[in-house]
Structures are given as C-alpha cells and as structure tokens.
Predict the 3D structure of the following.
Amino acid sequence: MNSFFSKDELKKIGLANYGDNVLLSRKASVYSPGEISIGSNVRIDDFCILSGNIAIGCYVHIAAYTALYGGTEGIVIKDFVNISSKNSIYAISDDYSGSSMTNPIVPDKYKIVDQRKVVIEKHVIIGTGCVILPGITLKEGSAFGAMSFINRSSDPWSINAGIPFKKIKSRCQNILKLEIEFLRDQEFYG
C-alpha cells in the first residue's frame, strides 16, 4: 500500500478542494478538512497536523512533524514554498500574560485568544524547528535558519536566523528566473 492517499481517498477526506499530484501522507492528521484547500504538486509528509482554515498553493513541500494551526483567520501558503520538519505555524494562540485562562478545554469566555492570519509568500524556505506566531507575513523569497523564532514579519529576499530571528543578509533572486524556466518546461513536457 502506498504511504500517500490515493486521489479517490483524498476525495473522501472532504477537503474544500485540491489539485493534481497531491501527496498527503496517510499518517498526517487533518482536522476540519472542509476548510483546507491544496493546490497542485504538493507533498505533505508523515505526522503533519493540518487544523483550521488553511490554503496551500502549488509546488509546496511540508516535511514531517510540521503543525499548521489555522484557526478561523487562516494560514496562506503560496507557491514554491518549502517548510522543513518539526515546524509549528500558529494563526491562533492563547494569551500567556496570565490575564486569562488557556487551553482548548476551557470555555472561550475565560480566555483571550490571538487569531490573526499568517501568510507565507512565494519561494519562502523555513528550516527545521521554527515557530511562527499569529499575524506574521513571511515576504517573498525570505529564508529562515533552523530553530528560528518568527515573531514579526520578514523583509523580502532575506536570509534570517535566531531567537527572535534577525536578518543576516539578502538572498539571491535567481530563483525567479528558474521559476520561469521551470514553468515553461512544465508546459512543454506536461
């Protein structure tokens, strides 16, 4: 048996929509599938969690043990994004100040919940073990080293790392030329 769901099995999961060549691991956990859309040429590996409002573009890889918590505001992942293993991306989070109670078992009237959209733009790469908080936009082409704490939006075409992250240097934009060539080849050979 294949370790990824077949096209027929994907249909039964009840995703809002999905494209061609979607490889979703049988060992991934999908909550509220009707709020999740997945583009074409996407691979989501073992032990990933997809929960809440999530929109994934095309040519995206999400590696093992990554968790996407979209809540109601959502996570948007655009095309050509690579998310390494063991990342946590939150569009929803409890308040840690002590002003309210926390955890999903406590009724909402006792909690303060931060819900803000997370956007991951084209050609972003996220190294292993990063944490992304609500309300963040990772600008086009930004890259993040392993174990980075991402608590604010990034500059486009930047290389970043640290806790909290800081910009190390600018990132080469040759990827944009390669994208055009790649898509042209896909049309020719597809």
